[in-house]
């Protein structure tokens, strides 16, 4: 059940209780004392008391430390909690065994996640245990809060609004309901997601969850470093995860190729790339690229996909990159030409595509009449270049995102 975690005073509590949830947690240690009794009387939902007793107010549940000997009156259910604010221990099984020495309706384990691997370990630990609620604190643990219903965790705590979180990494009710369609999630829900680092600026969770709103599916973001890739695929094996978007720096690390999309087929993962087709489709809405000169800034995974697709559609490819070795290798792959960044100012081209996080050229040197595509979301340096047709990274993102959904079995028109 989705539980609003309540703190503060009377009016704040009343506003929180109007939000769509299944239960309300009264954080008695954080609430104004004079607000507790009136709010309990007014609350139409099941109530959990945490951080105090007040048994005379007859909560539905009381949340106490797992080893507490507190005598709880009959009729009030007990949640026994273990908290670890330092790490997610390896011995979760042993911890639960110790907790189960005393009876409870629900056993709650909350730990600090230092990586997505910690969060995945918590999810797979909870999976299949009907009365065990497991969650990880911190940004890396957010997926345990979103995916609780998928693995059968009986409790997910949410903040009534930003700034009112009672635990680090807690999402708001609006985020869980509005973005992730929390109340639709369950054991049959298919999981999709983004892996890479950094991922904080990605809007993939907004786009994909909107597109998947009518499907029994959810999309989450998972920060992942290159050295964690092998462990990640071992960790997700028990989970119903069927598709992945891949961003930097993992596009060349998840398989023998440059992949921004992974699709699970049976017990195997198949890699593909929608960056190239997504970018070229957007460009060709402004005119065919065949016979044109396409200049690409950068030589990473996205640049490789766009260069290959551009060459396949008949464009002459130029690669400009700060590291000559990578730039020359890519130019050779697509039978193109390498330029240094300094040579860009004096080189003729029809189309310019920037794939680098930091634009390496001064926009003032771009030739008038050029079609300019900056694939980096949020980067505006190349938008509105005088005398040019400029395209934001959002257009390409939407184009390649629709193609990812198609690879995962969700045909798209215009989500």
CATH class label of the largest domain: Alpha Beta
Strand order of the largest sheet: 7-6-5-4-3-2-1-8
User: What count of helical segments does DSSP give?
Assistant: 13
Share of helix, binned: 25-40%
- CATH evolutionary superfamily of the largest domain: Aldolase class I
DSSP, total strands: 19
How is the main sheet built? 8 strands, parallel
Q: What is the first-to-last residue Cα distance?
A: 29 Å
Structural class: alpha/beta
General shape = elongated
Average pLDDT taken over every residue: 96
The appropriate CATH architecture of the largest domain is Alpha-Beta Barrel
Explain this structure.
The longest helix is centred in the C-terminal third of the chain and has 15 residues, at 393-407. The chain has 13 helices and 19 strands. It has an 8-stranded parallel sheet with strand order 7-6-5-4-3-2-1-8. A 6-stranded parallel sheet has the order 16-15-14-17-18-19. Strands 10-9-11-12-13 form a 5-stranded mixed sheet, covered by helices on one side. The model has no long low-confidence stretch (mean pLDDT 96). It is α/β, with parallel strands linked by helices. It starts with a strand and ends in an 8-residue tail after the last helix. The radius of gyration is 26 Å and the shape is elongated. Helix 4 packs parallel to helix 9 (229-236), helix 10 (275-284) crosses helix 11 (301-312) and helix 10 crosses helix 13. The protein folds into 3 domains: 1-187, Alpha-Beta Barrel (TIM Barrel); 189-272, Rossmann fold (3-Layer(aba) Sandwich), CATH 3.40.50; 277-396, 3-Layer(aba) Sandwich (Rossmann fold), CATH 3.40.50.720.
